[in-house]
Amino acid sequence: MVCVYSKEFPREWPQVGQIADIGEESLTVRWYCQQKDDGAFDPMHITKGKKRVPYTSTMAKSCVVTEPFKLTARRRIPQKINAILDVKFNDYFE
Fold first, then answer.
1. Which long-range contacts (CB under 8 A, 24 or more apart) does 71-79 make?
2. Helix boundaries (H) for 1-94
3. Residue 66 CB: number of other CB atoms within 10 A?
4. What is the pLDDT along the chain (94 residues), one digit of tens a residue?
5. How many domains does the structure of the chain reveal?
6. pTM of the full predicted structure?
7. How far apart (Å, rounded) are the C-alpha atoms in residues 67 and 49?
């Protein structure tokens, strides 16, 4: 998992995804969204035809704002990464 900042979704913070593929200058991310009720992150899906498929997109490697990490057992961002995100939030939004 990594956290990224994409200007395409400026109101979504943090933007969390699992790296699905890595290219020379880009990476493909499988997106996760935070549940409002318990704060856990779950994979996002879209519907294509009648099938539900993972929501992915390709972006520049420079959009990554954290080191790779694993979600906790409760599917949350680890404290160490949250601390990094607090600093990055100030860089991007203040």
1. 71/1, 71/41, 74/38, 74/40, 75/40, 75/41, 75/42, 76/39, 76/40, 76/41, 77/3, 77/14, 77/16, 77/41
2. 79-93
3. 20
4. 999 998 888 788 889 999 999 999 999 999 999 998 998 999 999 999 999 999 999 999 999 999 999 999 999 999 999 999 999 888 877 7
5. 1
6. 0.88
7. 35
Q: CA angle 77-83-85, nearest 5°?
A: 75
Q: Residue 65 in contact with residue 84, Cβ under 8 Å? A: yes
How far is Cα 82 from Cα 94, in angstroms, rounded to an integer?
A: 17
For residue 20, give its domain range. 2-93
Query: Can you tell me whether residue 30 is helix, strand or coil?
Result: strand
Which amino acid does the sequence have at 10? Answer: P
